[in-house]
TrEMBL record:
Protein name in UniProt: Aspartyl/asparaginyl beta-hydroxylase domain-containing protein
Origin species: Candidatus Afipia apatlaquensis
Keywords for this protein: Membrane, Transmembrane, Transmembrane helix
Transmembrane segments: 6-30
Taxonomic lineage from the root: Bacteria, Pseudomonadati, Pseudomonadota, Alphaproteobacteria, Hyphomicrobiales
Length: 192
């Protein structure tokens, strides 16, 4: 019986330590001096910006996207993603979100991610749960297959650290009837 109690105590302590870990990291990262240093580092490695919506830079383990033609007769193309450090399952970017999502429907991401708010704020809606304010020093996770929508962004935009892993698909939009439409086929007033 004591072994079971020991196991449960260790599990509970581990869960508490994990739950406390990310808020501490987020608080540290969002301190102005640390965040400015991360911005300076990120600005050296720009990524493809989404014009008028989001500016993006790599902080760690950039992912290169290439397109391989599988079958020239069928004109099929396969997307291949390769990380700088393939042994590492995590990549990190800095995002400057300039405006709220224009799309009516919520979108997902190709994998899971954690965001840390470094400067500014935004309101976010998710399928499950109330609309939430995410502000400087906050952190949250969105798992692969979950959908969200950025409803409002602070004046001047919001700066975030975007930690991603578990890439599985491309991203898309979830319509009111529950169907998911690939972002390349979505037709509701622009990309999100």
């Amino acid at each position: 019986m004591s072994t079971v109690l020991y196991y449960l105590a260790c599990t509970a302590l581990g869960a508490c330590a994990y739950a406390a870990f990310w808020p501490i990291v987020a608080w540290f990262v969002a301190t102005p001096r640390i965040f400015r240093a991360l911005q300076a580092r990120a600005f050296k490695t720009p990524y493809w910006h989404l014009e008028g919506y989001m500016e993006r830079w790599w902080l760690f383990n950039p992912i290169k996207t290439s397109y391989v033609q599988d079958n020239p007769a069928l004109n099929t193309v396969r997307v291949v993603k390769s990380a700088k450090y393939p042994w590492c399952p995590v990549s990190i970017r800095m995002h400057h979100i300039l405006r709220a999502d224009l799309a009516r429907d919520p979108h997902n991401h190709p994998g899971s991610f954690r965001t840390i708010i470094g400067q500014g704020w935004y309101f976010e809606s998710r399928e499950r749960g109330p609309r939430k304010l995410r502000a400087r020093g906050d952190t949250s996770v969105l798992r692969h297959g979950e959908f969200h929508h950025v409803d409002q962004v602070s004046p001047g935009g919001v700066w975030t650290i975007f930690i991603m892993w578990n890439w599985q698909t491309t991203w898309g939009f979830k319509l009111a009837d529950g169907t998911v439409v690939d972002h390349r086929e979505y037709k509701d007033g622009g990309a999100s």
